[in-house]
Amino acid sequence: MEDYKFLFKIVLVGNAGVGKTCLVRRFTQGLFPPGQGATIGVDFMIKTVEVEGEKIKLQIWDTAGQERFRSITQSYYRSAHALILVYDISCQPTFDCLPDWLREIQEYANSKVLKILVGNKTDRDDREIPTQIGEEFAKQHDMYFLETSAKEAENVERLFYEIAAELIDQARNKDGANVNKTTTDSIGLGNFGTKATQNSCCSSFSSNTSQSTNENNNSRNNT
Amino acid sequence: MATTTTIDVSTPESIQTTLRKIAEEENDIDTNLENLLSKQSLIESKMGAICYFLGTLNTVVADTKKLSTQISHTANLAESVSAKVRSVDLARSRASECQQRVHDLIDLQLCSQGVLKAIEEEDYEKGSALIGRFLSIDQNVLQRTAGDVGSSGSVTSVSDAVRTLENATEKMRKLVVIRFDEAVNKDDLASVERFLKLFPLLGIHYDGIEKFGKYICTKLAIKSEKELRTSLDIAKSENRLPVAFADTLTTLLENFARVIEVNKPIIEAHYGSGYLIILAILLQNECDSEVKNVVLEFNKNRRINDLIQQIKEYNRATGGNMPSLSQYQKQSVNADKPQPKDIDPIIVELTIMHSRVELYFRFLRRKVKLDIDASNVEDVEKERQTQRLNSLLNNSGLSRQMQELLSNYLLLERHFMEESVNKAITLDTFEVGQQCSSMVDDVFYILRKCIRRSLTTQSVNGLCAVINNTASCLYNFINALKVPLKNGYPSGYTDLAYSAIQSAVQHGKLQSSDSEKARSNFINRLNNADMSTEFLETLWETIEQDIKNTFPTLSVTEQRIVDSCISELRTVRDTLKACVNFGMTQLRSSAVKPRLNPWIDQFLNYSHILSEEELADYEAGETFIQTLIVQLDGFLSQFKNVLTPRNFDAFVSILATDTTARLERAIKKTSFNRLGGLILDQEIRALSSYLTGVTSWSVRDKMTRLTQIATILNLEKVDELTEYWGPENENETPSWRLTPQEVRILLALRIDFRMDDIKRIKL
Ligand SMILES: Nc1nc2c(ncn2[C@@H]2O[C@H](COP(=O)(O)OP(=O)(O)O)[C@@H](O)[C@H]2O)c(=O)[nH]1
Ligand SMILES: [Mg+2]
User: What is the required cofactor set for this protein (chain A) (predicted)?
Assistant: First the structure.
């Protein structure tokens, strides 16, 4: 068996064209893909990262944004440990759809799932959604918030590393509460009798500066 | 060499003599040394010789160099010879090119003479063939030839002939188009095919395929319109009403597939490879709109949109998750949601429709890809054409339709699964004599059915979504199992306050039967959970096999997605196991512990300090262990047949653990003499053999500590212990579970052992 301490499932959702596939490619392959077709159903990538000295396997599910793929993509929500909800900062309609996405998440995902709002394409100069607006929306809906550019590789590593770090914390808290420590290779939310205590706040995510220097090193190594 | 054997120093003379002698010896030695030194020059000269030979070696090097120069000379020579050969080759190929040109010119003359006549006689085949020959001549070369011949002033006919043929080509192209259109208008298939073959000869491949494609499309449109109109009637007459639209769609796609199948060889023969993609694209447009009509008709007739709407609203109302059981019972009253049995046939029809499209696409991909690969163009161009094919497959209206069919299928399937599972849970019945109730069989039957059905869509995405939904559904099922387990096992009531119950029973029996019911409910859920883990394991093993059969060639990514989805079922299994364990701990605290403890504590009422006489009495009467075993046996037999074998084993394991722990406590509170120790040893052996008899696994491990305790308390003398204690004994008996500290405490329970001996013993 592969050697890793935790396995986390991360699902990306959001309107078609906001850059989900590019974010995943940037993170897993270190590139910005030129004109690939729209995602059909779901796609799947794996990347093993090291956070706080632990090997973490991230299973990243990239989903198609169109309505007609919804009944496929929804089925992946429940087992997700983290959901990344992406919009395009240069495209108002993708932001306006966020409440619909949240409703869907509410309906199908585990209530304790880690939710992250991501405004992508910060490299573009035709911004329509000010950072503050995105931030406020995230705060209102109990989500972490980050702005990224898949094109310029900005905040992409940071996004995934911080999710990993947060999920490790949750898993550890849960482990502490759980007498039975034998299930080390995967944590299943909603397992019998034990659930992670949710620490929901937006602050720790964006104020973690040491992590971001770490990330810069990493992105240099990758490219 | 001279040696002074005797040195006489008695007189001055003799000293003098001796001195002289020594001086002489010294001289001798000096000469010797000089001798040796003189040899040095000899050695040096030899060294010189060697150096000289080294010089000779240098010549060898020079010679070698010379040789290599000669070799390269030869090589050059050979090269120049082969260059000559090459130029001879070139000359020859020029000659044959020349010959070819002459042939071309001759043909050109013949063609130009024949073509006009052919046109006049309306011999299109002959005319086109002549033009085809003309067009096959390299037009650039032809221009040059015309120039060459023209300048020499001999024959002007070359450029004349070219002009004639160019005009004839124009004319013939128009004529063939006109004749083709006429044939189309008359719907004269033979003529259509006749003229179809002429287009490539006239160098207008694309026009030919396009016209032909359009013709086929109109024909197909008429045909499918008729088929769609009559589909319900036909289905009715053939007793296939529930799959009427799937049948229509199948026929329709078969029509298109047949066109490709039949015309591929014709096009390849007359047009060459690489043109099928053009036909495929033309056909796809028509196919898209025809399929759209069928799907529209299907949606209308089967009220798909209403159903989807209802389900979505229902899901939104129940928060997407399956309602809890009590909620369900309330809601089942209002029947404003689609019923599983009503949507079942529609789901089947959807899977058929989806699979037909999938198969059609596979067919199209295979045929067109083969044609592209066989074509005579650069790899880049092939790549470009393959891209066109992919975009045709992924972005066509049909592929969108297919995705929508799948989407609707998944929504209905999910609803079907959840509702059926809910029903199975609500209608759960328990038959006396059974260990599990009906819902386990029912639920797994439903899940299996849905997963199998998802495979018939031929879609990996669809399969995975259904597996995911299965996992969700199972979590809800587990919750249904968990509730009674959480409430605990209500046995303490009947057993511990037996008399109280007796009086309650006399006052109206209610409590007893209530408690009885709750009790069997608890056991039943525990069994259900255990049986479910087994069913779940079987489920994923069979679906893994089914998947291999349905999709023998999955891509790496697809395989990973499938594996990951199936591993979710593994997580569910672990949750189920945790559920069983939880139930077991409940059973332990409310059923096992309260009864076991008083039984075992009886041990304290039996003295283990006995005389020989008392021993005989003890053995004659009812011993502690006999009573305990009878009690345990009675207790276990209540559970033996009601628990599943695995649960029963787990139960016995709990019982054994608790019994031994409690008994150990009682022993430690008791004092023993030699005979008491003997009795204890017998008692432990009896208990061990009883427990071994009731389970299929070994209880030996659980009994180890007690057995060791009995061994210690049954010692003749303290220092006998050394025979048992120590690493050399570890092969025969299990290693000691007792610490030296514990051993000393145990030894101290023997009133006949002296404290000093106990302290002295080395452990
Ligand atoms: N300028 C810019 N364009 C982006 C960025 N990320 C994605 N895109 C573009 O947005 C389009 C859609 O991206 P894609 O990843 O396919 O979106 P998806 O449908 O959410 O998966 C593509 O043309 C990308 O090149 C970004 O960070 N900056
Ligand atoms: Mg995408």
Answer: Mg(2+)
